[in-house]
Amino acid sequence: MLTILPIPAFEDNYIWLIHNGRHAVAVDPGEAEPVRSFLRREGLNLAAILATHHHGDHTGGIGDLLQDRAVPVYGAVRGPLAPQTTPVAEGDLITVPELPATFGVLAFPGHTRDHVGFTLPGALFCGDTLFGIGCGRLFEGTPEQALASLKKILALPDDTLIYCAHEYTLENIRFAKKVESGNPDLLQWEAAAQALRKNGRPTVPTTLALEKSANPFLRFEAPDVIRAASAHAGRPLNAPVEVFAAVRAWRDGA
Ligand SMILES: [Zn+2]
C-alpha cells in the first residue's frame, strides 16, 4: 500500500513523496532539508528521486540528498548532477523495487523542453506542466508543444489524480474567472479551495475531471473560453492552439 503526500518547500512548492512505510521516492526535491526531516521523523529510507524538469526549485535538493544516500535519479537534471542522472523519455518504465512500483514516463515539452511527467496507476506527477486551474508558463517550448503535452494529460482517465508541484490554485482561479466568469464548476471549486487554504490544507491533488471542467487551459474548445480569448486578443480565434496561446498570453500579462 503506497502513501502519497506533499512536503511543502520554499514559498509554494510541493515535493511529492511516495512511500510504503519503509522506503520512499521523492519527486522534484527542490530543497533537501524538508525531505530529510520528514524521512527522519517517519523512519523512511529514500529509494529514488524523480525530476520532472531542470528548474532549481525542482532539483536544488538532489545533491544534498545523494550525499545522505546514493539512490538512482531519473529525469531531467542539468549541470554537475547530470552524470549521476538517468535521462528518461516517453514510454520508459522506471521500476523502484523497494516500494515496489513502476512509474511510466510522458514527455511534456512546453514549460521547459526537457519536462516529463511520471505516472502511476491513477496518478500523474506533472511538475509545472499543469497546475490546479492553471498551467506552467512557456519558458522554452511553443504553444503547439505545450498544447500537445496537455492533450496527453487529457487522454488519461478522468479520475486520475493530478499531483502538480505548486500551490497556485486560488491565484489561478482568480484568473480563470476572468475567462469564464459563469462556470459553475469553477465557482464551486473556488469556495471549496478557499476553505481548504483557510485550514492550511493543500488544494492538490485535484482530479483530471475537475481540471477538465474548470481549468481554462484545458478548455480551448469551450465556447465561453473561445469567446473570451477572442475578445481579449481582439480577433476571432478558432484553432485550439490559437485559443490556448491567447489564454496563456492573457495570463502572462494578468
Ligand atoms: Zn519550473
Short recap of the structure:
The chain is of the alpha/beta class. It has 9 helices and 14 strands. β2 and β3 form a beta hairpin.
What can you see in these coordinates?
With 254 residues, the protein is α/β, with parallel strands linked by helices. Helices cover 36% and strands 24% of the residues. It has helices at 33-42, 56-59, 62-68, 143-154, 169-179, 184-198, 208-214, 223-233, 240-253, and strands spanning 3-9, 13-19, 23-27, 45-51, 73-75, 85-86, 93-96, 101-107, 116-120, 123-127, 130-131, 134-135, 161-164, 206-207. A six-stranded mixed β-sheet has the order 1-2-3-4-5-6. A six-stranded mixed β-sheet has the order 7-8-9-10-13-14. α5 (169-179) runs antiparallel to α6. The longest helix is centred in the last third of the chain and has 15 residues, at 184-198. The protein is globular, with a radius of gyration of 18 Å. The mean pLDDT is 97. Zinc ion binds at residues 53, 55, 111, 128.
